[in-house]
Amino acid sequence: MQNNQLLKSFVKTFLFISIFFLKTEISQAQYVEFDELQESEVTEYILRLTNGDILTGKIVEITDDEGEPFLKLKSAIGTATIYQNQIVEIRLKEEYYRHNHRIFIMPTAEPIGDNHFVGLFELLFAYAGVGIYDVGSITVGRTLVPGIPASDQLTIYNAKATVYTIPDKDTKGGLHFAIGANVATIGKETLSNIYGVATLVGERSRLTGMLFFKSSGSDVFDINLGRYGMATAQYATGSVGIGIGADAKFSTRYDTHVIAELWNNDVARPTNTAVLLGLRQANSDISMDFGLAFFTQPAVAPFVSFTWTPFFNSNLR
User: Fold this and answer.
1) 3-class SS at 92?
2) How far is it, in rounded angstroms, from Cα 227 to Cα 225?
3) Is the pTM of this model over 0.90?
4) pLDDT of res. 30
5) Distance between CA atoms of residues 205 and 241, nearest Å
């Protein structure tokens, strides 16, 4: 009986988190062709090889050996000779991070670009995102909670457009602006939001601010939790909410990030606030997020997310 109550509490918490945020993560990092590489003592590249190794360094020489192109990569442990047919992927180091279109569940103002992905949030919410050039981003997600009828699962559709960018050549970053909208359906209820978001990109960190507005849907509605019973959600139409997110890379490890978000879905109700704090381990293939969400009720819930960016430039294979 106690285990059933704990499971019921977890399911209710998970669905309330999803409805509270009503957001899905919705980079513009580009692949580099071998013949576009440049010898430089400044520019750093990240190379992923056919054997799975990942090397970081500066290219000091590009030539060929009897028709077989190769390069010499100067890294912290020495200079390596690498043939073109050994390389699966080449990216600029500052563009290696393929998950900059989101913090955890908060979309940043940067587009998905060519970093199309699939993911699993809280092991119970499947989602996928695609980029349309370096402007549009579309994400779709749906809960997969056992014991809840398919007609009562939560589905979210999100569309975002990066409309303006102010580049910063000194930091390889800049200031990005985007607008977007999302629609969520749960049972017979349909809710929608519109939002604006801005992201400041520094050398090792991103700071995102969001303002959103609930444009339609019932103020109070019931949620059918199937075998776990019923729950009631409150989210008034016309509510104005805010979100703040941060993504900071460790100075000594470019694959480990601290991520943090603060949400309030109605600025008139300070108690409608949540804070997420966690870590992200990421490479050009996979991102893994782990952390805790703190609510003012009070309540604490773990969060976890896995995303996969499986698409690579076939010209390098």
Assistant:
1) strand
2) 6
3) no
4) 43
5) 24
Longest dimension (CA), the chain: 73
SS (H, E, C) 236-268: CCCCEEEEEEEEEECCCCCCEEEEEEEEECCCC
Q: CA nearest 24: which of 99, 100, 107? A: 107
The contacts of residue 111 (CB under 8 Å, 6+ apart) are 27, 28, 101, 131, 133, 134, 135, 136, 137, 160, 162, 178
32 contacts 90 by C-beta, under 8 angstroms: yes
Q: Dihedrals φ, ψ of 69, to 5°? A: -65, 140
User: Which positions ≥6 away from 192 have C-beta within 8 Å?
Assistant: 181, 182, 183, 184, 214, 215, 216, 217
Query: What is d(CA 98, CA 112) in angstroms, rounded to the nearest whole number?
Result: 8
Q: Report phi then psi at 22, rounded to 5.
A: 50, 45
Say which residue the tokens 């430089």 belong to: 40
Distance (Å, rounded) from C-alpha 25 to C-alpha 129? 8
Tokens (6 digits) for 44:
């750093």
For residue 263, what are its two tokens?
């949400």
Q: Which residues contact 246 (CB under 8 A, 6 or more apart)?
A: 103, 205, 206, 207, 208, 258, 259, 260, 261
> In this structure, what token pair is assigned to residue 239?
């509510």
* Segment 230-254, tens digit of pLDDT: 888 888 999 999 999 999 988 766 6
**Integer angstrom CA distances of residue 307 from 40, 281, 303:** 33, 11, 14
Which tens digit of pLDDT belongs to each residue from 2-38?
455 655 665 555 565 555 554 433 233 345 677 777 7
pLDDT at 7: 57
Alpha helices in the chain (DSSP H): 2-21
How far apart (Å, rounded) are the C-alpha atoms in residues 129 and 27?
Answer: 11
